[in-house]
């Protein structure tokens, strides 16, 4: 039996501030098979971004486990967790978070160079991935020279360049105008041909959610699969 790409078991997150205690997530369970794309929908403040941060090992749960291909992320030392994130996870956010002083190719090459790839190899892999997302003519352009949709394509290329097990996306169309959002939507369909990575996507946009293999609702701290 194939190991799930990502799994959450009885995941809870409670924030405490002095005498105030706020439960954001409560006993969340999720099994993400390899190669599957799912959407998580919910109202603002429902904990969607918190859940993504836990799934990506960027935050620790108050209780429960997050397993990446069977590996409990909580038991890893921070160096090991960073290495796992670099090699096995890709992240795409509402804002692209590209480094403004570097070209599109250099931005996409960053994960490889951080992971120890020789610079020329990392740049070659970055150029190939940018070509796959339709930006072969923008390799040397800096973020300020790119449109909003192009910047988000660069961010998606950066998330995919290390051939991750799973890509986590937080409102990838949320900061784009309708035309640029449509381009990214089309690219989400193409990702299946670019990468074998599983996808967990948080969105308010029903059109985005409907493109995924499965849909989940996060409400009152609990995750429920939708039909």
Topology, number of strands: 10
**Bulk shape:** globular
Which strand-content bin applies to the residues?
A: 25-35%
Order of helices and strands: EEEHEEHEHHHEHEHEE
Query: Considering DSSP H and I runs of 4 or more, what fraction of the residues is helical?
Result: 25-40%
Uncertain regions spanning at least 5 consecutive residues: none
Strand line-up across the major sheet: 6-7-8-3-9-10
The whole-number mean of residue pLDDT values reads 87
Q: Gyration radius, to the nearest Å?
A: 17 Å
Report the end-to-end length measured between terminal Cα atoms. 25 Å
Number of helices: 7
Oligomer designation: single chain
Main sheet specs: 6 strands, mixed
**Strand-pairing-aware structural class:** alpha/beta
Could you characterize what this model shows?
This protein is an alpha/beta fold and 227 residues long. Helices cover 34% and strands 28% of the residues. The chain has 7 helices and 10 strands. The strands form 2 sheets. A 6-stranded mixed beta sheet has the order 6-7-8-3-9-10. Helix 3 packs across helix 4 and helix 5 packs parallel to helix 6. The longest helix has 17 residues. The mean pLDDT is 87.
